[in-house]
Amino acid sequence: MCGIFGFCNIEDSGLADRVCDVIRYRGPDDFGAHRFNNFFLGHLRLSIIDLAGGHQPMSNEDNTVWIVYNGEIYNFQKLRYQLEGLGHVFKTKTDTEVIIHAYEQYGEECLRKLEGMFAFALLDEKNNRLFLARDRLGIKPLYYTQTGERLFFASELKAILQLKSLKREIDKDALLDHLVFRYSHSPSTVLGSVKKLPPAHFMIFENGKTRIAKYWDLSFSYSSASYRELEDELKTTFREVVQRHLVADVPVGVMLSGGIDSSMIAAYAAESMPKIATFCIGFEGQSDNEFTYARAVSQRFNTEHHELTVKPADIGLLPHIVWYNDEPVAGPSSLAYYLMLSKAKEYVKVVLFGHGADEIFCGYEQFKVQKLTQKYINIPLIKEAMEFISSIFSKIFKSDYVFSRLHKYVASLDSPAENYFQLTSVFNYDELSIFLNSRYPRPTRRLPLLLGEDFSEDFRWEDMLSFETKGWLADDLLHRVDRMSMANSLEGRVPYLDHLMVEFASRVPFDMKLKGLHDKFILRNSASSVLPKEIFNRPKQRFNTPIHSFFSAGYEKLCRSLFSEDNFLNSEVFNREALLGLLDFKKRASYRYVLRHNKLLAQFYARQVWNIVIFQMWYKMFIEGLSASRFQESLERCISR
Fold it and tell me: 2, 8, 20, 559: which one is catalytic?
């Protein structure tokens, strides 16, 4: 895991030093640079494999091809053997050098042979060409900005912001996407001048011209194999995937929740790493913490287990979380991840996460709800009753837009795409019109634009899985895994998102993933011979940060302070009065009588507040230049009053 950056045709004194200063945590073990003509490559290293011989930028034998690289190639030893057979000579034991020789041998097609997570920039000096690429699922980040023949790329947005000439104007569509989905979809960022190279894409910058192309895509072609055959293949494939994710010359650990996903990783990891470290997070005052389940798994597989309890007062770290998150990604679990990884770095340098299983094997509530919707949509009495009830509530509680959201959800039952949007969005477009300034551009229906040629009003299961994987997973969940692990100078790995597992899951028929209302059916059954009974039989428990409880820890005072300020955001972007009114959500009928009685629904208003707060904090730090430390001091004063 590392930080990479570079530029071409840019004269900016001290740029490399400023970039190194701002993202040094991504690679505290080493720094290297290489110049050629108008090109510059920079690398900050976190040493994981070949600790002595992995210095970057790294070159081929005649120093004509140079690379800076962030990630891990899990099949590098097999590729090295093949390349040596073709006459290539290696000088290190790293996976980095394998990429160089694979490029020499196969050109752009080398990407199809690489199995792992990666973002790299490769300078081909013979052809005066820069070749940038990102892994299939978007596990590793890569940002860039281009103006004519001037190009600058880096692992993080804050590194790009070190370019003095950069325009810092908000991309209005990307901001709306952030408010609706809590993240901005690739290739956009909330800054119009900065883009993300999308997952499974490469860029070639040559003679001042840029070409971007896709080299892989998620496709669904269901297997005709029997259920038993597919279950056996799942166990074999995943065991192999976990084993190769353990390859490292430093200690490795597992984030263990006690659920199916992370417990399977711990089980297979323990086969080759006795006493592997495991880490579990819980929340103070929450009765449904997963400590008991995680302890059962730890005891079964004899792991070295560690626990951490997140307290409401830990909200004081929020400015630093926003700073490390780099983009205004509003997933509240970042706080818990950061704290747990701060503890984990005392024991390990690589951590395996269970993320991805829910997206590829249908583990989320929206899959079940959509299935029920499709089952009962054609029963007139049920639909009419739902429309009547939701209409009555929306009329009685006109100012309580939760009931309006419910009514819109019911009204959209005939349009699966719109129905999915109403079910999963943080704000729908009617709600946004309440909180946005009347002068701000009105939001338009973004789902068709985001999906492009993949969009269909029918929004089949494949469309939903594709959107979850390419959108929420790549631009939100994996983003947070990378940033919070790197903030602690740790490498985060996600075995379920090895593309071999993703491609396998895409061949599993949908009814083997969600059988009736049994989520992750085939994965759960495959675990029955491996995990304790109380683990594989337990219902799905989403990892929810109880942000509604933070309002008693001074967080509400911070929110009121942010929303009350007389600044650009509150005068030109948001409706200040509406924002302040949102903070009183616990007084609303929908919260008192309905939402607060369900752990997931109780977050409805709180996550809307969180979404706006995260963006406001991000704006003050990344655009106005307020330091995270100064912001934290202000927040701590609010909490202590």
Answer: 2
